[in-house]
Amino acid sequence: MENSTPPFYFNLTMFVNLGHYRFVAFAFCILLYSFIVSANLLMILVISQYKILHTPMYIFIALLSVNSLYGSTGFFPRFLMDLLSDTHLISHPACLTQIYVIYSYASNELTILSIMAHDRYIAVCHPLHYHRKMTLKTVILLSTSAWIFPAVSITALVSLSAKLPLCGNEIQRVFCTNWNVYQLSCINTALNNILGMLLTIVTVFLPFFHVLFTYLRILLVCWKNSAKFRSKVLQSCLPHIVSFVIYSITGFCDIALNRTNLEETNPILAIILSLEFVVIPPVLNPLVYGLKLPEIRRHIFGLLLYFKTR
Fold this sequence. Notes:
This protein is mainly α. The protein is built from ten helices and three strands; from the N terminus they run βααβαααβααααα.
């Protein structure tokens, strides 16, 4: 029974493969984290500062930036400390907390992208009813739902992991994941896997297919209209499509990595693939929306010029 009690510390073994590269990685990652915080704070500041941007589309973009700050702040400080440390132990409660933060960030990203797709669908397919359907009350309800459903689902998922008796403490990643904790279990986790799959369907697959279905309907409407209409829709929807594609690719890489034997994988490649979904969307989202949407771009340059002249 002593071997089946949860270990007080987990050992994140993938850090040992970095060697002297960890100092280079530390310098690069601290610059990356600084950019993520600065760029996303700037997006939130610009959208909150200018009343003309207080519309559903821009409010949802601000939500993406808030989620980027949440996910990156829940990941980077611990990761940066581990890069410089000779030991890479994380306590059982801290590991579960890290799983909750990273998984809820990932789920939030997808649910926010889903409600953004819904907003674009109404704007393109029902423009005359847009202001009636996308009221402030509706925006608040959608925004709240985009955070609450993942929070409840991930809490249930982490609670299941917390109760597992564990027969090991080595996690072959640079951060804790639910799948790795399941692999350390001393008992059969079939029930946990089934419940985990149901929760994944609710927080991942339903929002994912909702976005695909929504854009299929937008595509059909564009097909029946003029080239000018299609160009206008593309300008409005392209940043969201880019965000969705990037997130889908990075999320798929992480899922594929969980099913791969990491001992047979190049360690540097494995680390890069495991970090993509917590690094690339928070970096690219403010660039995509800030540079592609004229209203945001104009007000960003205006705000930066204001601070420069003070």
